[in-house]
Amino acid sequence: MGELPPQVQNLAGQLQQVQQQLQLIISQKAQLEGLIKEAKDALDELQKSESDVAYRAVGNVLVKLKKEEIEKDLQEKIETYEVRRNMLERQEGKLRDRLTELQEKLRSALGVQAG
Question: Cβ distance 77 to 65 under 8 Å?
Fold first, then answer.
């Protein structure tokens, strides 16, 4: 079997690059899902509390704050995480489309070469 033509090598390189980008996006999305779940769980527990105050860890210190302040901060974190997750989902969709396109081009190029 001879060496692959530059066009096929280029397609294979692009395909590998898109696969790596897709893996990175999927990993980042999973991390955000964990952060969203953690923040939602904390917010749920906070809302169950009958106290007007709660404590937030700031470094090695617990700081006493009004419950509403922490609830507001958690809501904002959740919204920010969800916006970032949605952005990653759009990027993931585009990368999956690009991956499919490159796979088809590579199959075609290899089919032409083999034929």
Answer: no
